[in-house]
């Protein structure tokens, strides 16, 4: 389990058994002694914004930009543990009541104070309106939230859930009630700035949009989460480029100051030795994977999924495409970085095309004279994801050796995400940026109607294990349950998890103050990092 600090609270013995999680705020990070200036920080991205509503967001650019305006209750450390952001304390009153204590010095950019009422309203609205995305996926056991004071939110649960406080706190952006309540539904509210502009409680506020070109954000002068209470750069501009290689050229030429996207592994060593560029490592709390859509009658057969899992050269992908910057998870959703949960007895699928052929025959298929079986699977991936684009080709080639035809369909990222949400694929290839809590991750990925259940699995035994893991507060019991669940996922190929990797991000050496956080979602473009970055003066 992740290390936790314990909240000081009067409680019954039953409440104490919940191992209340809470943290007291520390001083804002002393990232820099610089004072606020007039500089503009220009950051490269490869996608336009699809949704300005942080409760819906699809693309990484959505997240990067809205995250600078709408705060989270908690942030994440490199080991997956949670730290204060808007919230100062958090935990459980009893086994079906959670709470957050929030800062009293935050306000929206239009002058309205940010209070517990905004927090409670956001949680209730997301639960009621069901916007697509991870935030709503975390709220399965939420009943209702209530602001019991200006700085305290309490919320009731329909049943015990030992992960929900930290996961809501980290994944859910808080929005201004007085702006969003005007909408009929937060699931459809465009929040496009047309009705008086955007309102922010983050370090920056979006002020100008040029679709396909750039997104300009102006500093919010009062931001108490950084030293001095004011972001150091006057403006942040996200510029849109067609691909990562063009972004790198723009960084080298001085057009941009940082790249939001993770660097392709083949570029890391080269850029580390390039004068004028700083490469920062970010801890990987996610994994790359393929899922097989079991709504397809062929993929509903276990032997076919097993055959596909045996037709992937995992070592070659990690060595050639990832340049040795990735490690195996043992085909398990419990990554090595989650040390308490990781189970080294769960072994990775072997690469064996002869065995894959035997499994296809066992499933009832006969290869033709060309050696190919009478099936064809369409694999989707994002063209903006250069790493997945490379290994998708290797997957196609190795599957062909096993007689399994795969058609590659790479699309622009936002199209890819839309296809994913519709289930318009046979094989999904992609990445989860942060998988920090095994119970929550499995709830989202493997329970019926889970927000990221891309295989459409519904396994009663797996469902029961996840339910037990959700309810228990006993660490050892939770670890045991999740390891058993991970073995079911692996053995039934409900998910083909291929590797986990640390990521690398590039910025100009003329800038300093960046603070790295885990994953591509946060990296060096998380709110405190962006607000702390400033020119070196050299």
Q: Mind explaining what this structure looks like?
A:
The chain has 538 residues and is of the alpha+beta class. Helices cover 30% and strands 20% of the residues. It contains 18 helices and 21 strands. The protein has helices at residues 13-16, 60-66, 116-129, 134-137, 164-171, 177-180, 244-253, 265-272, 302-310, 314-321, 353-362, 386-401, 413-422, 438-446, 460-471, 475-491, 519-522, 527-532; strands at 40-45, 74-76, 82-84, 87-94, 97-102, 142-149, 152-157, 204-210, 214-219, 235-240, 258-259, 277-282, 287-292, 326-327, 377-382, 406-411, 427-432, 496-501, 503-508, 511-512, 534-535. The strands form six sheets. It has a six-stranded mixed β-sheet. It has a five-stranded mixed β-sheet with strand order 8-9-10-1-11, with helices on both faces. Helix 12 links the parallel strand 15 (377-382) and strand 16. The relative contact order is 0.16. Mean pLDDT is 91; it is low at 1-33.
Number of helices: 18
Oligomer: single chain
What shape does the CA trace take? globular
Question: In what order do the strands lie side by side in the largest sheet?
Answer: 14-18-13-17-15-16
SS class: alpha+beta
């Amino acid at each position: 389990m992740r290390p936790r600090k314990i909240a000081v609270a009067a409680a019954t013995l039953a409440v104490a058994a919940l191992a209340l999680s809470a943290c007291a705020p520390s001083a804002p990070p002393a990232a820099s002694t610089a004072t606020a200036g007039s500089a503009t920080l220009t950051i490269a991205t490869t996608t336009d914004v699809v949704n300005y509503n942080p409760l819906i967001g699809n693309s990484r650019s959505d997240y990067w930009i809205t995250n600078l305006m709408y705060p989270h209750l908690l942030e994440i450390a490199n080991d997956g543990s949670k730290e204060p952001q808007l919230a100062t304390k958090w935990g459980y009153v009893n086994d079906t009541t959670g709470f957050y204590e929030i800062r009293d010095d935050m306000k929206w950019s239009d002058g309205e104070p940010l209070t517990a009422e905004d927090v409670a309203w956001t949680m209730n609205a997301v639960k009621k309106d069901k916007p697509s995305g991870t935030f709503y996926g975390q709220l399965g056991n939420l009943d209702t939230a209530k602001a019991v004071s200006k700085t305290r939110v309490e919320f009731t649960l329909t049943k015990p859930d030992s992960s929900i406080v930290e996961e809501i706190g980290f994944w859910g952006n808080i929005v201004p009630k007085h702006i969003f309540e005007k909408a009929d539904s937060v699931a459809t509210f465009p929040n496009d700035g047309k009705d008086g502009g955007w309102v922010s409680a983050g370090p920056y506020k979006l002020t100008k949009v040029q679709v396909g070109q750039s997104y300009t954000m102006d500093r919010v002068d009062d931001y108490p989460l950084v030293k001095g209470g004011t972001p150091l750069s006057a403006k942040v501009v996200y510029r849109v480029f067609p691909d990562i290689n063009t972004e790198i050229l723009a960084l080298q030429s001085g057009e941009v100051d940082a790249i939001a996207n993770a660097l392709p592994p083949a570029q890391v060593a080269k850029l580390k030795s390039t004068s004028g560029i700083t490469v920062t490592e970010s801890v990987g709390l996610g994994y790359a994977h393929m899922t097989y859509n079991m709504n397809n009658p062929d993929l509903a057969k276990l032997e076919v999924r097993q055959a596909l899992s045996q037709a992937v050269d995992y070592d070659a992908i990690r060595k050639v495409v990832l340049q040795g910057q990735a490690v195996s998870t043992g085909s398990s959703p419990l990554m090595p970085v989650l040390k308490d949960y990781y189970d080294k007895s769960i072994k990775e699928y072997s690469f064996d095309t002869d065995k894959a052929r035997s499994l296809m025959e066992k499933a009832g298929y006969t290869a033709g004279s060309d050696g190919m079986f009478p099936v064809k699977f369409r694999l989707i991936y994002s063209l903006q994801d250069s790493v997945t684009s490379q290994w998708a080709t290797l997957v196609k080639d190795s599957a062909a050796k096993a007689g399994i035809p795969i058609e590659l369909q790479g699309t622009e990222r936002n199209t890819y995400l839309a296809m994913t949400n519709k289930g318009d694929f046979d094989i999904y290839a992609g990445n989860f940026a942060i998988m920090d809590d095994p119970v929550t991750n499995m709830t989202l990925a493997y329970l019926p109607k889970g927000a990221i259940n891309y295989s459409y699995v519904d396994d009663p035994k797996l469902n029961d294990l996840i339910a037990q893991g959700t309810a228990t507060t006993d660490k050892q019991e939770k670890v045991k349950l999740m390891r058993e669940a991970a073995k079911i996922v692996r053995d039934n190929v409900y998910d083909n998890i291929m590797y986990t990797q640390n990521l690398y991000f590039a910025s100009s050496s003329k800038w300093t103050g960046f603070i790295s956080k885990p994953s591509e979602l946060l990296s060096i473009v998380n709110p405190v990092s962006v607000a702390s970055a400033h020119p070196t003066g050299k």
